[in-house]
């Protein structure tokens, strides 16, 4: 309460100073207008600090992991202050791509072959100027997995690379087949249930730098893919730790939420057109497997998955695919430390589908659940251009694991 009062006084003082300089006194020359605005501002500040700004819920399956995070990743126990003028889920989700900066990153591209004759595009940030890890063979490596139709150009990926650069780490971005401008050599794309390409990438990266600390971070669908991989392979992975952000835990619940009228209008239809565009570029590769005209008429992600993704990967029905794609059913088998950040107001991942009880049964898992933040939003500050709460969680966690991960052994 003492901290709340201090925050309230500070915010009220800042609002008062701002308004004194910016707002002209109206209402026939009296100070009534300014007084009303100041009164409203103080009332809003009280509401914001009492109902919006909250500490995240930390759910762990073991006391040691909880203590580790409190000691070395304290951001997960600190109050999250969403942007005061944009804390609602949809607003955070929609604004984040437009309002956050895109730090310049110079990539080195590598194309690697797959067992089926395909190729995967990897974008490397080698960080050869690292002063902390001059020896490239031991420089920590962070594998980054973008979202549904995302690539290495996404702002949240660029921010993670910028933060990793500050820590002296190397990054490599795993671009899913066919989305980063490379040719599709086989009639196959990607889905979050099939982990074969990810396994190929992890093996390849580890073989290049076997002595380096190796971590992974996945965002949205990239996080779902990462968790499904970890749930399948258990502790037998070269990764020492992983983090996920805004994961859809139950694909059925995600689809149902995104098909509500407003969510369909704001998100679902647009993402469906992005998926259609990504496969239509390689249309000639799929004509023998799927009815591409039917695929291009899909109006939702579920329809696209039913007509394309589930067929592409040999599932009998869309329900079979969605069951296999849901990472909540594999969380109990994760065998390395994993931190999962979700907002309970995320319309892409409804709060009722977050596997809290399952997480409590696995000592390797920590859920960090904020009250607000939307989907890959987590905007904070008056003008959240340079950093988000998600960025701070990422930086503190990977640094904690690299420098203190031995404490969990």
3D structure, described in words:
The protein is an alpha/beta fold and 409 residues long. It folds into two domains: 52-250 and 328-406, Alpha/Beta hydrolase fold, catalytic domain (Rossmann fold, 3-Layer(aba) Sandwich), CATH 3.40.50; 251-325, no CATH class. It contains 14 helices and nine strands. A nine-stranded mixed sheet has the order 1-9-8-7-6-4-5-3-2, with helices on both faces. Helix 1 (2-22) runs antiparallel to helix 2 and helix 5 runs parallel beside helix 14. The longest helix is centred in the N-terminal third of the chain and has 21 residues, at 2-22. The chain is globular and about 75 Å long. Mean pLDDT is 91; it is low at 1-5 and 22-29.
Task: Identify the CATH class of the largest domain.
Answer: Alpha Beta
Beta-strand content bin: 5-15%
How many domains make up the coordinates?
Answer: 2
Q: What's the alpha carbon Rg, rounded to whole Å?
A: 23 Å
Tell me which CATH architecture of the largest domain applies here: 3-Layer(aba) Sandwich
Number of strands: 9
Total count of helical runs of at least 4 residues: 14
Q: CATH superfamily name of the largest domain?
A: Alpha/Beta hydrolase fold, catalytic domain
What does the main sheet amount to?
9 strands, mixed
Instruction: Measure the end-to-end span.
Output: 38 Å
- Measured as a percent range, the helix fraction is 40-55%
Write down the CATH topology of the largest domain: Rossmann fold
What's the order of the H and E elements?
Answer: HHEHHEEEHEHEHEHHHHHEHEH
Q: Describe the global form.
A: globular
Q: What is the average of the pLDDT values?
A: 91
Question: Low-confidence spans: pLDDT under 50, at least 5 residues?
Answer: 1-5, 22-29
Structural class: alpha/beta
Sheet with the most strands: spatial strand order? 1-9-8-7-6-4-5-3-2
């Amino acid at each position: 309460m003492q901290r709340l009062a201090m925050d309230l006084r500070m915010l009220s003082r800042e609002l008062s100073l701002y308004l004194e300089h910016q707002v002209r006194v109206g209402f026939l020359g009296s100070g009534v207008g300014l007084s009303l605005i100041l009164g409203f501002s103080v009332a809003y500040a009280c509401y914001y600090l009492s109902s919006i700004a909250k500490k995240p819920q930390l759910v762990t399956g073991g006391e040691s992991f909880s203590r580790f995070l409190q000691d070395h990743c304290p951001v997960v126990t600190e109050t999250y202050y969403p942007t005061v003028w944009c804390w609602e889920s949809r607003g955070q989700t929609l604004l984040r791509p437009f309002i956050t900066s895109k730090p310049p990153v110079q990539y080195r591209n590598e194309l690697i072959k797959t067992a089926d004759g395909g190729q995967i595009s990897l974008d490397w940030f080698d960080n050869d100027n690292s002063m902390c890890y001059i020896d490239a063979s031991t420089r920590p490596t962070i594998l980054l997995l973008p979202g549904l139709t995302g690539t290495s150009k996404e702002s949240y990926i660029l921010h993670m690379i910028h933060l990793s650069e500050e820590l002296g780490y190397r990054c490599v971005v795993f671009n899913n087949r066919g989305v980063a401008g490379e040719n599709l050599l086989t009639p196959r794309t990607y889905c979050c249930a099939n982990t074969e390409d990810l396994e190929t990438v992890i093996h390849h990266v580890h073989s290049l730098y076997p002595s380096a600390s190796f971590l992974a971070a996945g965002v949205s669908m990239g996080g779902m893919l990462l968790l499904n991989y970890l749930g399948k392979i258990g502790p037998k992975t070269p990764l020492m730790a992983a983090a996920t952000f805004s994961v859809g835990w139950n694909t059925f619940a995600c689809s149902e939420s995104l098909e509500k009228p407003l969510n369909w209008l704001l998100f679902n239809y647009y993402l469906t057109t992005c998926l259609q565009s990504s496969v239509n570029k390689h249309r000639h590769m799929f004509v023998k497997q799927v009815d591409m005209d039917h695929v291009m008429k899909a109006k939702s992600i579920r329809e696209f998955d039913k007509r394309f993704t589930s067929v592409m990967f040999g599932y009998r029905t869309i329900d079979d695919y969605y069951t296999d794609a849901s990472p909540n059913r594999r969380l109990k088998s994760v065998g390395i430390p994993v931190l999962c950040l979700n907002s309970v107001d995320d319309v892409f991942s409804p709060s009722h589908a977050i596997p809290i009880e399952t997480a409590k049964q696995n000592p390797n898992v920590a859920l960090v659940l904020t009250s607000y933040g939307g989907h890959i939003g987590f905007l904070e500050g008056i003008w959240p251009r340079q950093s988000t709460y998600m960025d701070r969680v990422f930086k503190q966690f990977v640094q904690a694991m690299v420098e203190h991960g031995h404490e969990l052994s």
